[in-house]
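ok trying this again, last paste got cut off
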Amino acid sequence: MSYETIESTFIATPEKGAVSSLLIRPESAQWLLVLGHGAGTNMRHTTLQTIAERLADRGIATFRYQFPYMERGGGGRESQAVALATVRAAVAAAHEAASELSLLVGGHSYSGRMSSLASAESPIEHVRGLVFFAFPLHPAGKQGTERAEHLDDVTVPMLFLSGTRDKLAVLELLSPVCEKLGDKATLHLLDTADHGFKVLKRSRKTDEDVFVEMARVVNEWVEAHNLKW
């Protein structure tokens, strides 16, 4: 199924200027997920495009956006302060584009963590929940939970969609992190998926496409938590 994509721009920060955005809005949408990209990809990457399309199949709109460094074509990332300001600016732009929809924020890997850091710093206006597509708990081969310490300060519900083969979030560490967060956190494991959602088809315990699965779980989660205005 194909969906109309509305392209636009917004000001990330006064110093960094405008960045691009892509809005997909199904007719039946009640929620709008502000969806960021991974550290080495952009908003048009196949992974993010597929996530957005499968969410649209479930009636969830998405507002994809670029961080300034990727708008310039990649290279070195800006400071964390710039990234957090960009997340807030993206949420504000999304709300302006569809003010009647309930807002969620998150993204794949890097952008998910930037979204949670922004939310922990101070609640992001209009945001009802956080969705992490492969939260990067630690660098590959350098296991630890320091990147999760700020999650205690997040005040909205959080959904973690994490592959059982994700080398940036080993289950022995991620599961206790989510358990400690209590009712605020929901962890859904994606059987045999890695950090980029590649799966082992022969040993995977379900025939459901992993992107279809994630969209279904997001839809079930927002319904269960009644994340509407």
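PB: full thing came through this time. The radius of gyration is 16 Å.
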